[in-house]
Write a structure and sequence with these properties.
Elements lengths: L3 E5 L12 E6 L2 E6 L4 E6 L1 E2 L19 E4 L3 E3 L9 E5 L15 E4 L1 E2 L4 E4 L2 E5 L5 E3 L6 E2 L12 E3 L6 E2 L12 E4 L5 E2 L11 E4 L6 E2 L13 E4 L4 H5 L9 E4 L1
Parallel strand pairs: 4-6, 5-7, 6-8, 12-14, 13-15, 14-16, 16-18, 17-19, 18-20, 19-21, 21-22
Antiparallel strand pairs: 1-8, 1-9, 2-3, 3-4, 10-11, 11-12
């Protein structure tokens, strides 16, 4: 059975589950949470109730649930059912009900890598918050909006030459990131892509300055950051906004 990763982009609430719990979540559905495996299991026949936070039966476990098993017989998942969770959906055959029609603030993903990257349609849409060093697989074409925004411990990232764009606020709040190398394939960088980072240096491999939003392109003190660019391209960067505002531009 192919696994689908269900990503929820809401704030986490640290809580430690110490015992199993269970209850009803549909006319003929029950839920069980196992603290040992950090697994929530939905069993029975029919549709799940819809909810609105915080009135969700397993809401107190939202920061520690890792896996959700939807057993055969379950025909739909209720609105907001997993708000605030970062988890993997398993054994759910009725994929049609996992759609944007459900108001989860959620995104379905195809793959989760060993580094904790959640990928959909060759786009990195999220990274697990505990990531420290990440290698983006070759073939990925884009880093999505807010993809690494929770990764305050991220200290290094390897971006392949297949990536062509970096979304808005993609690395927002990555305070552990002090240097980054951007391949020549990247032609656009979204607004606030590096806001809140502690960058000291940025290495750009493209001889042509990537397109950025002039207003709020980086949302950090780029006049404190050294920009490294390919030999022969410094003049192009010195003439382009916002690149010309970096502390210094050095060819390498």
């Amino acid at each position: 059975m192919k696994q689908l990763t269900l990503l929820f982009l809401m704030a986490l609430m640290p809580i430690v589950a110490s015992a199993d719990d269970s209850g009803k979540c549909g006319n003929n559905l029950t839920w069980t949470y196992s603290s040992d495996s950090q697994t929530l299991t939905i069993s029975g026949i029919g549709n799940m109730y819809s909810y609105y936070p915080p009135n969700i039966p397993w809401y107190q476990y939202k920061s520690v649930i890792t896996f959700v098993i939807i057993e055969d017989g379950v025909t739909s998942i209720g609105d907001w059912a997993f708000e605030g969770c970062y988890l993997i959906i398993e054994n759910f055959t009725n994929k049609s009900s996992l759609s944007n029609d459900n108001y989860w603030g959620a995104t379905l993903c195809d793959v989760e890598t060993d580094d904790g990257l959640l990928i959909q349609d060759n786009i990195v849409v999220f990274c697990r918050p505990n990531a420290t060093s990440v290698i983006i697989p070759n073939g990925i074409t884009s880093i999505g909006d807010w993809a690494f925004s929770r990764c305050i411990g991220l200290t290094s990232i390897d971006i392949p030459s297949s990536v062509t764009s970096i979304g808005k606020s993609a690395f927002s709040g990555c305070t552990g990131l002090t240097s980054i190398e951007i391949p020549s394939s990247v032609t656009s960088i979204g607004s606030g892509a590096f806001s809140g980072c502690n960058l000291e240096s940025m290495h750009i491999q493209s001889k042509t300055p990537p397109q950025t939003s002039i207003e709020g392109s980086f949302q950090l003190r780029i006049d404190y950051i050294t920009l490294y660019v390919p030999v022969g391209s410094a003049d192009a960067y010195k003439a382009a906004t916002p690149w010309k505002y970096f502390k210094e531009i050095i060819e390498e």
